């Protein structure tokens, strides 16, 4: 698991009682849970654990939120937003910047209320 994945897992897991997964969610996982994955950009590890935005090396991360109902999904979205804001205020890692507005839907396959978030990881 890459260092940005390790950092994201540590950051996201407490928001869903430890059910944050990189790339693949185990079969039978009950909502609420999160799945995150890199969808673009490159990760460039440096000694100071930052990425170089000037060179186009800022990774894009997609976070899929799954809740039992729309209220639970929305509460998780608010928790993610609050955690990101707290990290920025405290100069903590990871630093995420919203890349696009969330997409909301109902997932027939998992029978969960779903949201897809996209962020740029500006430091981890």
Explained architecture:
The chain is 24% helix and 35% strand. The protein is built from 2 helices and 5 strands; from the N terminus they run αβββαββ. The chain has helices at residues 3-12, 70-89, and strands spanning 20-22, 33-40, 60-67, 95-107, 112-123. The longest helix has 20 residues, at 70-89. Strands 1-2-3-5-4 form a 5-stranded mixed β-sheet, covered by helices on one side. Strand 4 (95-107) and strand 5 (112-123) form a beta hairpin. It is globular and about 35 Å long. With 124 residues, it is α+β, with helices and mostly antiparallel strands.
**Shape, principal axes of CA atoms:** globular
Q: Secondary-structure element order, as H and E?
A: HEEEHEE
Major β-sheet profile: 5 strands, mixed
Could you give the distance between the termini? Answer: 14 Å
The count of β-strands is 5
Q: What count of helical segments does DSSP give?
A: 2
Relative helix content = 10-25%
Structural class, by secondary structure, is: alpha+beta
